[in-house]
Amino acid sequence: MISVTEALERLFALVDPLDSETVPLRQARNRVMSRPVAAFRDQPPFAASAMDGYAIADDAAPGASFRVIGESAAGARFQGRVGLGEAVRIFTGAPLPTGADRVVIQENAVRDGQTVTFTERAEPGRNIRPSGGDFHKDDTHFPRRALNPADIALLAAMGAGAVPVTRKPQVALIATGDELVAPGEAAGPDQIFASNTYGLAAMFEASGCIANMVPIARDDAASMNGAFDLARGADLVVTVGGASVGDHDLVAGIAAQRGMVPAFHKVAMRPGKPLMAGRIDGAPMIGLPGNPVSAMICGILFVLPVLRVLQGLPAGPAPRFNARLATEIDANGDREHYMRATNGADGIQPFDRQDSSLLRILSDADALLVRPPHDPPRGIGETVECIAIA
Ligand SMILES: Nc1nc2c(c(=O)[nH]1)N[C@H]1C(S)=C(S)[C@@H](COP(=O)(O)OP(=O)(O)OC[C@H]3O[C@@H](n4cnc5c(N)ncnc54)[C@H](O)[C@@H]3O)O[C@H]1N2
Ligand code: MOO
């Protein structure tokens, strides 16, 4: 059995970034930029007032009176020049008039007709946003993450009406098993509701992909081949279940008959041991184990990093953080163990029950405590590595 790190490396070797497309800015949230975008102009494009008040050209000595010669509003600048002893009424965001070098806020001004006096001095530059103070023309933006609302605001400020992004990965999801019935449908006595593909589709869509759940494949060759046929054209094929060694675990065999080039089968981890991967029908394929928690954890640890690479982001494992143990834990066995846990004020607390069928415990968890193979017993307060999963 290979390690989790080795499995991830082999997966990354199966995938290349997808091609690029241009989308309107309004559709760019959560997308990944495929190349930098340059600012169309400086921001602000002119020196601007940061406050509502008066723009002046010299010291606002308390008691000295200034003659108000005009107004500069956002979108409509004062056209003249401000000289000594003169003031221009100005508003936040308005262009600073020629000649002015400071703005006194109106709370420090006393207006009387066309005359204004000030109650506090203002040094040069006060309350002025310099031209290009946010960014300059031709400065670029190219974050290596899915675009967040702040990125969208910045791109808008730069003048980008459209954004070059990597095409959304299309993921085909194949659930396998005679026992499965879709939630909402009538279930027979020996059936269970399919959950894995629903959770995984939500996970993949949250990370910027299009998930296509093909009809559930039954545990026979014809049905599975039909599902693989429907998955053709996807950028990634993900199967769930049928990955283990039982008589009804057919995925590896059918995939092999279809000419899958295998990358690995079985990883030294818990849960998730029967994980498999390769290339099939021209696309990378990941075969997830059927136990619901195994499928979801393998989705986090393996599929999400692959989806990042497809979107043009750097290859790397799920990020980890350090936490202190809130409880004692026993020695680990020879497989890397990903334990459902909660991370609270007292530290990280794994759940007592870790069976890979228990979805409620996955839902209650906000972290995975990562136990390396052969990790010795650990005590309260020791530092351990974790992965956030909320
Ligand atoms: N003799 C052995 N038995 C098992 C081994 C082993 O090494 N030797 N590995 C165990 C481990 S670990 C796992 S994980 C499971 C994985 O098996 P499969 O990938 O073949 O999954 P299935 O047998 O099809 O299903 C397992 C379990 O999960 C339920 N399931 C499957 N698909 C879904 C779905 N889409 N939604 C909800 N639940 C699903 C299925 O009903 C089973 O209960 O094998 C162990 N066995
Ligand atoms: O992958 Mo199995 O998960 O250890 O239940």
From TrEMBL:
Which major enzyme category is it? Answer: transferase
Q: Write down the required cofactor(s).
A: Mg(2+)
Q: What is this protein called?
A: Molybdopterin molybdenumtransferase
**Which GO BP terms apply?**
Mo-molybdopterin cofactor biosynthetic process
Q: Name one GO molecular function term.
A: metal ion binding
Q: Do the record's keywords include Metal-binding? A: yes
Could you tell me the EC number(s) of this protein?
Answer: 2.10.1.1
InterPro entries, sorted? MoaB/Mog-like_dom_sf, MoaB/Mog_dom, MoeA-like, MoeA_C_domain_IV, MoeA_C_domain_IV_sf, MoeA_linker/N, MoeA_linker/N_sf
Q: What taxonomic classification does the UniProt entry list for its organism?
A: Bacteria, Pseudomonadati, Pseudomonadota, Alphaproteobacteria, Rhodobacterales
The entry's keywords: Magnesium, Metal-binding, Molybdenum, Molybdenum cofactor biosynthesis, Transferase
Q: Where is the MoaB/Mog domain?
A: 172-309
Taken from the UniProt entry, a GO cellular component term is: cytosol
UniProt lists the family membership as follows:
Belongs to the MoeA family.
Which pathway does it take part in? Cofactor biosynthesis; molybdopterin biosynthesis
Function statement = Catalyzes the insertion of molybdate into adenylated molybdopterin with the concomitant release of AMP.
PANTHER family per record:
GEPHYRIN, MOLYBDOPTERIN BIOSYNTHESIS PROTEIN
Q: Which reaction does it catalyse?
A: adenylyl-molybdopterin + molybdate = Mo-molybdopterin + AMP + H(+)
